[in-house]
């Protein structure tokens, strides 16, 4: 009798454990499994940087727009207030052996010290491998004695509107916060601070400050996007950079420390309806090839001034902006298929892109800015005017150029172009090539012991 009671109690305990185990397994949804697997590879990023504000000593006086613009562009760095600020963001480990972390560029831009914290509370100081403001992506590196957890890459080309997504990040400093939602739309364009970002994934999972740089996952826990909180007006929606778009950028950042732009060698402009009608275009898309550069990939492939570029790699073009956006997705050395409208018929041309040759940069600088520059060490006859230790000195300037109208003189030193520090002519050439397609750049110019910020039209 006693034995039977023991057997019954044992069976009841076993059955209870089985029921509890089954209940727990039922609660382990695909979302739970994905989060458990991926969370160790998600990191928190904090960066400390210095903020400089230029003060106008005449701000108490009423000034017109001319003087407002003058003080904005030309006041010396000596009239500055400086203070420290901390930025919070997220990132994801993409290579556990090399300690490589993918995040947003705006999370680490202008930063000094970067600290990375893993889920297990380990802290590392990180170095910037490379950053690209055009794609808002950056790669960091941390050094660990042990293998770090890494995420599995997914495929953002086959995602479906309505499918479940998972976001993990650090919103407002709340570590490893998980949100879920669905894919709301694809190929979204977002304009912010003068830039246009294209091909974003839109979700209904809110992306808040601190989420930037964190992973967007599919239900299998694969990385399909990098969350970005660049759109301040967004409420109840989020945007992410498709991982397939990011892969090319990441490859360049790891290999070169920057994104190497593919060079085709054409200048394009928008088509108006009148011109399109005159040329008997079959549709409402296309951009006019205004100029084909000498000895460029385009010239070698047979492209001509006046051709109408209809599509690049089967992506229809409606504006010159479309052309530049599409070209960003391809690397130097790739062959691209172009559809051209010439003499009332459509033809296909293959162009093998290249890296813009640096030996053309000085000619390009003269063409865009009207200046010739040299290293400081070569400019002994300007030495009594030069206080700067780094930079390039303006040796010649076209009197008809925009810079000449602003008052730039031979002997002035260029120390920075946009976010690039210019230490020598090599840096200057790289900056000219990098920014050659922009409408304008900001230059830090030094004359004797005074610095001036100048906005230059290209």
Label this structure with key terms.
458 residues, alpha+beta, Thrombin, subunit H, Pdz3 Domain, 3 domains, seven-stranded antiparallel β-sheet, six-stranded antiparallel beta barrel, 11 helices, 23% helix, 36% strand, globular
Number of strands: 25
CATH topology of the largest domain: the name is Thrombin, subunit H
Total number of domains? 3
Distance between the termini: 98 Å
CATH class of the largest domain: Mainly Beta
Biggest sheet features: 7 strands, antiparallel
| Uncertain residue segments | 56-72
Question: How confident overall, as mean pLDDT?
Answer: 83
Tell me the number of helical segments per DSSP (H or I, 4 or more residues long). Answer: 11
Strand content: 35-45%
Shape: globular
Quickly give the structural class.
alpha+beta
Q: Calculate Rg over CA atoms.
A: 28 Å
What's the arrangement of strands in the largest beta sheet? 5-4-1-2-3-7-6
CATH architecture of the largest domain: Beta Barrel
What is the share of helical residues? Answer: 10-25%
Describe this structure in words.
This protein is an alpha+beta fold. The chain has three domains: 27-260, Thrombin, subunit H (Beta Barrel); 266-352, PDZ domain (Pdz3 Domain, Roll), CATH 2.30.42.10; 358-457, Pdz3 Domain. It is built from eleven helices and 25 strands. The protein has helices at residues 2-27, 30-38, 65-74, 105-108, 243-256, 273-278, 297-301, 320-327, 361-369, 402-406, 425-435; strands at residues 42-54, 80-95, 100-103, 113-117, 123-125, 127-132, 137-141, 164-169, 177-192, 195-203, 215-218, 223-228, 238-242, 266-270, 287-292, 308-312, 315-316, 335-342, 345-352, 371-375, 392-397, 413-417, 420-421, 440-447, 450-457. The protein has a seven-stranded antiparallel sheet with strand order 5-4-1-2-3-7-6. It has a six-stranded antiparallel barrel with strand order 8-9-10-13-12-11. A hairpin with a 2-residue loop joins strand 16 (308-312) and strand 17. The longest helix is centred in the N-terminal third of the chain and has 26 residues, at 2-27.
